[in-house]
Amino acid sequence: MIDFNLIKELVKTDFKLKYYGSFLGFFWSLLKPFLMLGILYFVFTYFIKVQIPKFALFLLLGIIIWNYFIDTTNDSMNSIKAKSKMLTKTRLSPGTLVIAASIHNAITLLLNLLVFFIIFFVGGHPLGYVSLYFIVLFILLICIVTSLSLVVILLNIRFTDFKHIWDVLTQILFWATPIVYNLDYVTTNFQRWFLLNPIARIIVDARAVILYNTFPELKQIIITFIISIAICVICYYIYKKNKERVLEFL
Fold it and tell me: In the chain, what are the domain boundaries?
């Protein structure tokens, strides 16, 4: 059974520890996507010269969603290692630490999205009714990333070098996800492979409903739900089967 009071305290602790001793503190989490935006926007506007409508907002939204995925998986791995004594001396479930890390980063995600929408409205951009679908995408994103993190922590505990492997994999995934480019830049034959990545599907659909007031095709919505549910079920099954072995490798 999930102890929500414990999760609440863990989220508070994670916030304090993550920004302890930092001059800007929590504002680093808001500054991070804008630093990435500045670098990528400069390179892809003045050197590669991509032609994408509302490119700054296009890029920022992709970065914000991607950062939630990266920060949650990394924080989950770090949390398990940092709180290993707590896990071995209590009946605390490793999944509880993952949920706390996910909520902690979901709060940061919401604050980053708040800044995004302020910029969006100040720029005079309209927001249509189809943008309500973003709420569904937001929930799917939380579920997918939390589920993936459950498997990531198992691999990180079992294999010493997994953290380094994960860093390389996420770098590859970053460029294999349409964050700095439009999916239309990818040939039709390869698009279906790109869209097996649920994070890519969420980013593409989020941009469609928010930036371009376009609702995804029903077929694509169904596929997104199937992939998302499949990942959540498979990841939870793997975690449930192996969570008791976590203590063996700590």
Answer: 4-249
- Angle CA(178)–CA(27)–CA(171) in degrees, nearest 5? 30
> Are the beta carbons of 99 and 146 closer than 8 angstroms?
yes
What does pTM read for this prediction?
A: 0.90
Q: What is the pLDDT of residue 120?
A: 93
Render pLDDT for 105-122 as a digit per residue (tens, 0 to 9): 999 899 899 989 999 998
- The type of residue at 41 is Y
Backbone dihedral angles phi then psi of residue 155, each to the nearest 5 degrees: -65, -35
Amino acid letter, residue 196: L
Q: How far is 245 from 250, CA to CA, in rounded Å?
A: 9
User: Helix, strand, or coil here: 196?
Assistant: coil
Q: Which of 166, 172, 135 is nearest to 149 (CA)?
A: 166
